[in-house]
Write a structure and sequence with these properties.
Structural class: alpha/beta
Largest sheet: 9 strands, mixed
Number of helices: 11
Number of domains: 2
CATH class of the largest domain: Alpha Beta
Distance between the termini: 29 Å
CATH topology of the largest domain: D-Amino Acid Oxidase, Chain A, domain 2
Number of strands: 20
Bound molecules: flavin-adenine dinucleotide
Length: about 425
């Protein structure tokens, strides 16, 4: 089959790779001049298979005043004049119940474990150099209530296959000595041995290399913004780029991250995807022992750390502020201060690569896979804070749908209505 994939972020690239393995001819089209220039460029780098609990959880009600009025809150809300922002927020708040959060966690865990299985089984991908770090992940808690909640989540997830250990403060520091400077604000944590981290940009570059050989049936068209999807009834006839060219294929996969909503509207699809802005820093590691070896999540600040070769990746913030991708110096300063307090000697703090990206978030935190109401358009969108983690599994679901194989996860779990 001829297939056009719109978007060359980690979701589009893994989809192209998986479809090529099934023998399809694939064209990847992207408005950017190269792969992974959107949310996949410098994200938190976590392959966070066992940490998939959605942002929409019951604690949001408790934390709401802080998010709305706090100066240094990890989450921030700035009202815009779009009706869609309010519609999205109403659905998001409606999903902030314990029952909904647990149901979403179940679905995401299944997709995350599928992702891990697909990645681990892929010998060509395993051979790429993308700073793949398998040292596990430690999520530290700053108060007893947080630790009790984490313990309950560990017990809940153990029946779904997660292997996690609850540690006290001393055990956390023994596991990750670089945390000793903040021992006073840690009461304990959860260690998950099989969590991983890696560089999503280098993964995408590696996949492009794999798919670009002389005999390859995959073509990359960069610098071509898709202006609209050309729909006739229940079919797409093509995708029109800004210079007026039309790319035609037998089937199309929409994987345009946070821009997917706008593109969907051109074909009459109302995709509930809102951009949630985050920040990251990439720092050269100056002192090996002072930088964490395991991935660390600091739940007090809601900041994640991952070691990527000779660099430390730091990421955080969830700002509901529209599509503005500029770096707010105050938010960046907050992230730098928190990272510096946590791992003061890890870096000289002179050379920092700051970055922002937009998480393509659905209200419940579930991606939308497959179903669109247009027979030859498959959706692979709305992965929110977990797109890197879920990319290989999502690609597997899309490939199964196109090949007429049974879906490796229940399709209703990732429908438009479920998101
Ligand atoms: C600060 C931050 C930290 C994060 N940390 C993690 C993490 O630790 N682990 C994790 O799993 N996930 C993480 N995420 C989420 C993850 O980065 C995203 O879910 C993921 O990158 C989404 O991938 P994507 O391919 O769907 O979107 P993108 O990477 O945004 O790719 C979409 C592509 O579509 C292209 N495009 C858009 N519009 C058009 C158009 N009209 N025509 C042609 N091309 C178009 C864009 O140029 C872009 O290349 C984080 C995100 C942020 C912002």
């Amino acid at each position: 089959m001829d297939i056009v994939v719109i978007g060359s972020g980690v979701v589009g690239m893994t989809t192209a790779w998986r479809l090529a393995r099934d023998g399809h001819r694939v064209t990847v089209v992207d408005r950017a001049p190269a792969t992974a220039q959107g949310a996949s460029h410098a994200n938190g780098a976590q392959l966070s298979y066992s940490y998939v609990a959605p942002l929409a959880g019951p604690s949001v009600w408790f934390d709401l005043p802080k998010y709305l009025f706090g100066r240094n809150s990890p989450m921030r809300f700035r009202p815009t004049f779009e009706l869609f922002q309010y519609r999205w927020l109403l659905r998001f708040m409606g999903a902030c119940t314990q029952q909904e959060a647990l149901a979403t966690t179940d679905k995401l865990l299944r997709l995350a474990y599928l992702s891990r299985d697909v990645l681990h089984a892929a010998s060509d991908i395993r051979g790429l150099d993308f700073a793949w770090n398998k040292a596990g992940k430690l999520v530290v808690q700053g108060n007893a209530a947080g630790l009790a909640g984490a313990q309950a989540q560990v017990e809940y997830q153990s029946r779904l296959g997660s292997v996690q250990q609850v540690l006290d403060r001393d055990a956390c520091i023994r596991l990750e000595p670089a945390l000793k400077g903040i021992a006073h604000r840690i009461v304990g944590g959860v260690y998950t041995v099989d969590e991983e981290a890696a560089d999503p940009y280098r993964l995408c570059q590696g996949i492009e290399g794999l798919l670009s050989g002389d005999n390859s049936d995959v073509r990359f068209v960069y610098g071509a913004r898709v202006r609209r999807l050309l729909r006739s009834g229940r079919r797409l006839l093509g995708v029109e780029t800004a210079d007026g060219n039309v790319l035609e294929a037998d089937a199309y996969v929409l994987a345009a991250g946070a821009a997917s909503r706008r593109l969907g509207l051109t074909a009459g699809l109302d995709l509930p995807i809102y951009p949630i802005k985050g920040y990251s820093l990439s720092l050269p590691i100056a002192n090996d022992d002072a930088a964490p070896r395991v991935s660390v999540t600091d739940t007090e600040y809601k900041v994640v750390y991952a070691r990527l070769g000779a660099k430390l990746r730091v990421a955080g913030m969830a700002d509901i502020v529209g599509t503005d991708e500029s770096i707010d110096p105050r938010r960046l300063g907050q992230l730098v201060a928190q990272a510096r307090e946590t791992f003061p000697l890890a870096s000289t703090w002179q050379q920092m690569e700051p970055w922002t990206g937009l998480r393509p978030a659905t209200p419940r935190g579930l991606p939308i896979l497959n179903t669109s109401g247009i027979d030859n358009l498959l959706l692979n969108v709305g992965h929110g804070a977990l797109g890197f983690t879920l990319a290989f599994g999502s690609a597997e679901v899309i490939a199964a749908a196109l090949a007429g194989r049974s879906s490796p996860v229940p399709t209703d779990d990732f429908s438009l209505a479920a998101a």
